[in-house]
Amino acid sequence: MNLKQLGWESFFENHFTDYDQEQFTVGRVALEYKRMYRLFTEHGELLAEITGKLRHSATERQDYPAVGDWVVISARPEEQKASIHAILPRKSKFSRKAAGVTTEEQIVAANIDTVFLVNALNTDFNLRRMERYLLMAWESGANPVIVLSKSDLCENVSQKLMEVESIAMGVPVHAISAENGEGLDQLSAYLEWGQTVALLGSSGAGKSTLTNALFGEKKQEVKTIREDDDKGRHTTTHRELVLLQGGGVVVDTPGMRELQLWEADEGVSQSFSDVAALAANCRFRDCQHTTEPGCAVQEAISDGTLDQERYNSYVKLQKELAFLARKEDQRLALAEKNKWKKISGDRTRVNRK
Ligand SMILES: Nc1nc2c(ncn2[C@@H]2O[C@H](COP(=O)(O)OP(=O)(O)OP(=O)(O)O)[C@@H](O)[C@H]2O)c(=O)[nH]1
Ligand SMILES: [Zn+2]
């Protein structure tokens, strides 16, 4: 496998120079099991475990490898195995709140260049949802592209395109149909050699159909490793990174389907830069945009330049984010405490020797 095709580039290379090049090489995580990782490497596919040292220094879930991560490994190609020593810094990442009572960050996929925000042009069409997806995309560090699918089922595509462009804030918007192939060629620019693409969108939006239409015949067969377990020998074919022939990589993880909003402060200001620009013109610095005199936001709503629903959506997201931030603060305090417990625990063990 060619590292460049897998998405290896100077960003990662620069970080890899910190490691001994004689001893280590790199791989990209294609699938995550409970304790094992399936990696794409120069030596083909390897099955890897993280070293005790890495496990020991990991205090949070995000300290463990995720699909799409580039990891520093020592490879044992003859056994088709490897050990993961470190995770290289992530260029972008999609996270979600890990299930449970605490809001721990769980990384769903890392190092995505472009994310297709897929929304169907029929009954699925919902600007408020698109705003949320945009927010997640900005927050992730990947470049969003809005894909309006099922254009064959829509009578007024140009009207819809205009509506979307009003909230898209300069993000490219493409109307496509996997059914009749319309617009598909516009997407190929994002799928060049070495590029990593992911798709986000609600169930039924047409992600799988689009994936098949775009990549169906391009999927590269990956030589599978046979592995032993107590049930005997078998081969797994499922991968969450899909390699394309002559192209890049598609991330296809179930986790992307369940994404929730996570700490998206920066995303809010980018997605709602129109609201932020208006708010800067309010007479009072601390204007709450409710009943204050000289409120530019309320003015814009009443003269129709700002859509009331868009503003409501902004307020709602702000509230959700404030709530998440409070939970996150509590979680960080706890993580810090646990880290110190772990460190002082180590010291106790050392002292006892
Ligand atoms: N008419 C038309 N139907 C489409 C198009 N793309 C997808 N569909 C149909 O929409 C339905 C849902 O498509 P999927 O690709 O399974 O949607 P998905 O987003 O992958 O859904 P999940 O797997 O639940 O996340 C299927 O019945 C598709 O045949 C299109 O361009 N035109
Ligand atoms: Zn105001």
TrEMBL record:
GO biological process: ribosomal small subunit biogenesis
Presence of the UniProt keyword Ion transport in the record: no
An MF annotation (GO) of this entry: rRNA binding
Subcellular location(s) of the protein: Cytoplasm
Family matches, as Gene3D superfamilies: P-loop containing nucleotide triphosphate hydrolases, Probable gtpase engc, domain 3
UniProt binding sites for GTP: 149-152, 201-209
EC number: 3.6.1.-
Enzyme class (EC, first level): hydrolase
Keywords annotated in UniProt: Cytoplasm, GTP-binding, Hydrolase, Metal-binding, Nucleotide-binding, Ribosome biogenesis, RNA-binding, rRNA-binding, Zinc
Pfam families per UniProt: RsgA_GTPase
Residues that bind Zn(2+): 282, 287, 289, 295
Chain ranges of the CP-type G domain: 102-259
GO cellular component annotations of the record: cytoplasm
Similarity remark: Belongs to the TRAFAC class YlqF/YawG GTPase family. RsgA subfamily.
Function of the protein: One of several proteins that assist in the late maturation steps of the functional core of the 30S ribosomal subunit. Helps release RbfA from mature subunits. May play a role in the assembly of ribosomal proteins into the subunit. Circularly permuted GTPase that catalyzes slow GTP hydrolysis, GTPase activity is stimulated by the 30S ribosomal subunit.
Name this polypeptide is given: Small ribosomal subunit biogenesis GTPase RsgA
Organism: Fictibacillus solisalsi
Source species taxonomy: Bacteria, Bacillati, Bacillota, Bacilli, Bacillales
